[in-house]
């Protein structure tokens, strides 16, 4: 009888081991992180604070997005920039400047330039490039709380970074830190995520701090604070149009 119970226990142990969920692949980890930060649709209210040794600046904006293909941004503060709007559809991006009543289309070379004088790029704000699809991923290390992942660009990908090293939370898959390197393996900038909250059924960091690593920018940083976030809300397709650049700037 004792042998029978031992056999049953052994079988149950083996079955339970098989039933346990397999750990996610590194590709799945990156996909989960990306999906967490995007949603099918989203609405964001943000405050961006630029800090340098000589001056400080605050920008407030509203942002709407539909997947990875479409996004719309409206500046609400400061007064001199109020009403400036941005539209991104697939790989194209436009800006409307109310003071001159003109729509400007961004050439691809401008996507990696500074957005509104911050340490974020135009690409960062409209999320044009995709870490999921434009890079291959390798798990460098892990501990009880997080994964460390190295992302290397695919040969055909039109991206600027030589590699990106991400630290990702192991339970909820939100980013903790990302470091961006150039083709010579020099660290160019570091993005740190803090103040995690639960919203719309997901855990999200609400303060993002971008720090450039250039010698002439030591001590500079841009802090992006998420004041309000909504995911998977209905959005009218007409929002993502050249017409909206003008009409929604008012």
Number of strands: 13
Query: What's the average pLDDT?
Result: 88
| Total helical segments | 5
Adjacency order of strands in the biggest sheet = 6-5-4-3-2-1-13-12-11-10-9-8-7
What is the CATH superfamily classification? Lipoprotein localisation LolA/LolB/LppX
Question: Which CATH C-level class is it?
Answer: Mainly Beta
CATH A-level architecture: Clam
Terminal-residue CA separation: 82 Å
Low-confidence stretches: 12-19
Overall morphology: globular
Relative helix content:
10-25%
- Please identify the structural class as seen in this structure: alpha+beta
Determine Rg (CA atoms, Å): 22 Å
Q: Proportion of β residues?
A: 35-45%
**Secondary-structure element series:** HHEEEEEEHHEEEEEEEH
Integer count of domains: 1
Largest sheet: 13 strands, antiparallel
CATH fold field value: outer membrane lipoprotein receptor (LolB), chain A
Q: Could you explain the architecture of this structure?
A:
The protein has 250 residues and is of the alpha+beta class. The chain has a single domain, classed as Lipoprotein localisation LolA/LolB/LppX (outer membrane lipoprotein receptor (LolB), chain A, Clam). 18% of the residues lie in helices and 44% in strands. It has 5 helices and 13 strands. It has helices spanning 2-19, 26-38, 122-126, 131-134, 242-247, and strands at 41-51, 56-66, 70-77, 85-89, 92-97, 102-105, 135-142, 146-153, 163-169, 175-181, 187-199, 202-212, 221-231. The chain has a 13-stranded antiparallel beta sheet with strand order 6-5-4-3-2-1-13-12-11-10-9-8-7. Strand 3 and strand 4 (85-89) form a beta hairpin. The longest helix has 18 residues, at 2-19. 23% of the residues are buried. Residues 12-19 have low confidence and may be disordered.
């Amino acid at each position: 009888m004792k042998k029978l119970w031992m056999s049953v226990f052994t079988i149950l142990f083996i079955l339970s081991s098989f039933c346990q969920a397999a750990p996610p692949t590194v590709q799945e980890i990156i996909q989960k992180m990306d999906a967490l930060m995007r949603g099918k649709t989203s609405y964001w209210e943000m405050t961006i604070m630029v800090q340098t040794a000589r001056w400080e600046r605050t920008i407030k904006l509203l942002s709407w997005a539909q997947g990875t293909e479409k996004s719309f941004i409206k500046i609400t503060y400061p007064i001199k920039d109020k009403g400036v709007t941005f539209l991104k559809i697939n790989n194209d991006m436009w800006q409307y400047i109310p003071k001159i009543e003109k729509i400007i289309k961004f050439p691809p070379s401008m996507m990696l330039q500074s957005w509104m004088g911050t340490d974020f790029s135009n690409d960062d704000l409209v999320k044009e490039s995709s870490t999921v699809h434009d890079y291959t991923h390798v798990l460098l290390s892990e501990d009880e709380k997080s994964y460390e992942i190295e992302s290397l660009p695919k040969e055909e990908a039109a991206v600027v970074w030589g590699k990106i090293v991400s630290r990702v939370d192991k339970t909820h898959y939100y980013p903790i830190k990302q470091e961006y390197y150039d083709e010579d393996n020099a660290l160019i900038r570091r993005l740190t995520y803090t103040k995690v909250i639960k919203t719309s059924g997901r855990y999200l960091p609400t303060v993002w701090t971008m720090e450039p690593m250039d010698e002439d920018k030591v001590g500079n940083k841009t802090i992006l604070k998420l004041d309000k976030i909504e995911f998977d809300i209905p959005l009218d397709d007409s929002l993502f149009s050249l017409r909206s650049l003008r009409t929604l700037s008012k």
